[in-house]
Amino acid sequence: xxxxxxxxxxxxxxxxxxxxxxxxxxxxxxxxxxxxxxxxxxxxxxxxxxxxxxxxxxxxxxxxxxxxxxxxxxxxxxxxxxxxxxxxxxxxxxxxxxxxxxxxxxxxxxxxxxxxxxxxxxxxxxxxxxxxxxxxxxxxxxxxxxxxxxxxxxxxxxxxxxxxxxxxxxxxxxxxxxxxxxxxxxxxxxxxxxxxxxxxxxxxxxxxxxxxxxxxxxxxxxxxxxxxxxxxxxxxxxxxxxxxxxxxxxxxxxxxxxxxxxxxxxxxxxxxxxxxxxxxxxxxxxxxxxxxxxxxxxxxxxxxxxxxxxxxxxxxxxxx
Length: 320
Ligand code: SD4
Hints:
320 residues, Glutamine Phosphoribosylpyrophosphate, subunit 1, domain 1, 8-stranded mixed β-sheet, 4-stranded antiparallel β-sheet, 12 strands, globular, binds N-hydroxy-L-asparagine
C-alpha cells in the first residue's frame, strides 16, 4: 500500500511558525525582589558592606567595589590584596577587574605595592580609554590617581614563602578549602547589575603569571539584560572555557543561574577528564530576577549572599 503525505500550505506555514517560536529564548517577566550582593567563599563582611550600600540607594558598582576593598585590606586573607601569598620570587602581584551595568570594564594585572587593585581597575574603566593596565604601567597610573604605595608582603606570608622555598615544590594543588579570591556580583534598587573580582592569584606562581580574575569573560562577566557571573579556582582552566561569559550566555538562553554554573563546571570536567580531580574551580551567578546559584568541581566551595532575607553563607553543590 502506498501512503502519500501532503501538507496544505497554510498548515505547513503554521507548523513552521510554531517551530520557530518554540526555538526562541523564553523572555520571562522579571519580578524584582530587592537588592542583593553575592560573593565567592565565606565573605560575610564583604557582602554585608556591599548590601549596606545597596540598601541605602547606592549603585551595584559601588557595592561590589566596597565589598572587594574590604577583603583586599584584610591581611588574614592570603589570596587577595595585602597579605596575599607571593609568587616564587617573593613578590605579591595583584589581578583585578570590574564591570558595570553599561558593559564598561576595567582591569589591572601584575599590580605591585598597591592594596586596592579593584579600585585601580575602576579608575582604568572610568578615567582611561583602555580596559586593562599591567605591571609598572598599572602601578604608575595608580600612583598618579593618588593610591598609596605599600609593601603587600606581610610577615606571615613572607614566613610561609620562606618555608615553601625549602622544597620549592610547585604543584598547583588548589587549596580547596583555602581560597579567598573574591568575586562579587550585585543588583541594586534599580535592578542594575555589576561585578568585580580581585586576587593575588595562585601562591608561588611563576613571576609574571596572570590568572582568570582580571580577564573579562573568564573571571567575571556582566550583562545587565541577563545576569552576571564570576569565578574562583585554577584560573588557567577558567580562562580556557571563558567560564563567566559562558554562564551569562547560558542564562540568556533560559538557564537558571544554578543550571548555568553546573553546565560551565561540566564543560571543564569534560575537557580535562581525570585531571579535574586535582584542581578546584567554583562559579557563582546572579540573574535579573535576583536568583543566584553556585557550583564547583570539588566540595568546600561556598557562596555568601546578602539580601532582604539577611546574610548567609551557603555551601556550594559540587561535581565530586
Ligand atoms: C587565579 N582564580 O589567579 C585565581 C585564584 C583563586 O582563590 O581563585 N584563588 O587563578
